[in-house]
Amino acid sequence: MLIEALIDRYKAHFEGGAAYVLPFENRGRDVGVTLPHPHGQIYAFAIVPEPQATAARAFASGYDLIADHASWNGVFDIASDDHCTAFSPPFARFPFETWIMPNRPCRGPWDLDGAGIEALARMLGDIPRRLDGLFGVPMPYMMSFQAAPREAGDEFQFTVQFFPVMRDAGRLKYLASVEQFTGIFTVDVVPEQAAERLRAV
């Protein structure tokens, strides 16, 4: 199974001295892939990249994503079960951006039990199906496993993040100058509307 293979790779790279490990998948020529089918890679870093270091600092300083998610009262939720929830976060940068999060504290997929792994696997199949159903064509996206860096504490919350690149039928999301130069993304589709549309697929 894919997730069990990823857990094995996480452990091997961390034991080999990697500070951070990033498994990811690219799908669709519109995200720059050269292979016609979805395909993934795993990068092992000697340092923790700044976005992940920022996340680790936030969690270490007391940010609680699970509690924050609970305060949204399901407005941004797409799908859920006893183990995982998929949602379009209120701070999404991409139209139809979707995160999958275990419902309990979890540093990475290695912290999941068998039922949690099965639930995550089901959700990893469900979200692309929903994204494809939005416009009736395969949705190009980038997907990554955002697990804790090797030295991060138990407060780090693991997520799987999908960055779809279509904002409407036949229309790609391009980064505008203001987004490129500031890192502040404009909103093409507000997250609560994105979640509502994805729930309906």
Automatic annotation (TrEMBL):
GO terms for cellular component: cytoplasm. Its EC number is 2.7.7.12. Gene3D superfamilies: HIT-like. Pathway: Carbohydrate metabolism; galactose metabolism. GO terms for molecular function: UDP-glucose:hexose-1-phosphate uridylyltransferase activity; zinc ion binding. GO terms for biological process: galactose catabolic process via UDP-galactose, Leloir pathway. Residues 16-49 form the Galactose-1-phosphate uridyl transferase N-terminal domain. Signal peptide: none annotated. InterPro entries: GalP_UDPtransf1, GalP_UDPtransf1_His-AS, GalP_Utransf_N, HIT-like_sf. It is an enzyme of class 2 (transferase). Keywords: Carbohydrate metabolism, Galactose metabolism, Nucleotidyltransferase, Transferase. It comes from the Bacteria. It catalyses: alpha-D-galactose 1-phosphate + UDP-alpha-D-glucose = alpha-D-glucose 1-phosphate + UDP-alpha-D-galactose. This is Galactose-1-phosphate uridylyltransferase. The lineage of its organism: Bacteria, Pseudomonadati, Pseudomonadota, Alphaproteobacteria, Hyphomonadales.
